[in-house]
């Protein structure tokens, strides 16, 4: 791990070169500890795949104090195990051609049946590596290499809210209607972003996510919709 200056009142902590489960867990653990340690000095924390941006109030602290506190937190964080960081969140998914427009084509591309793709997608336990692109859009990894598939050559102009997609070795749920080029394999009825909720997203960086298959009827009963809006 290393700490570097990222602006007049910002420091960035690098936990590794690439996002992976252990690194994501370390980022999440450090963010939780830093939020408590910095307290009133803190403006914001921005976690990502392998880094954590720390924005502090220059009228309440300075670079030297923040760096010192970061050092204390990182020492404590190293003592935490990967399992200690992040909650396990289970999200329901209706897998089917009427919900996952690319399920069949993805299966053909990787040499599996649609049922095998669904089974492998459910078996994984994914880390939330980063939040971005849109509010509530969580980048989850790593997908089993047997169902990893590149993004679509031509992105869709409109991807429906709740669409579950795969791109390379990542998977995600679209929180709102938007353009997108991920391979869609199902639909989740759970809202991934609600500005009136606290927290507004059901998952945070460092959490662990599992997917659970539900029937079409269960999907509708949970408030899901197959409309493209």
TrEMBL record:
The keyword Nucleotide-binding applies. It comes from the Bacteria. This is 5-oxoprolinase subunit PxpB. The gene is pxpB. Coiled coil: none annotated. Gene3D superfamilies: 3.30.1360.40, Cyclophilin-like. The keyword Isomerase does not apply. One of its GO terms (molecular function) is 5-oxoprolinase (ATP-hydrolyzing) activity. Transmembrane segments: none annotated. It is an enzyme of class 3 (hydrolase). It comes from Marinobacterium alkalitolerans. SUPFAM superfamilies: Cyclophilin-like (SSF50891), PH0987 N-terminal domain-like (SSF160467). Its EC number is 3.5.2.9. Residues 1-203 form the Carboxyltransferase domain. Keywords: ATP-binding, Hydrolase, Nucleotide-binding.
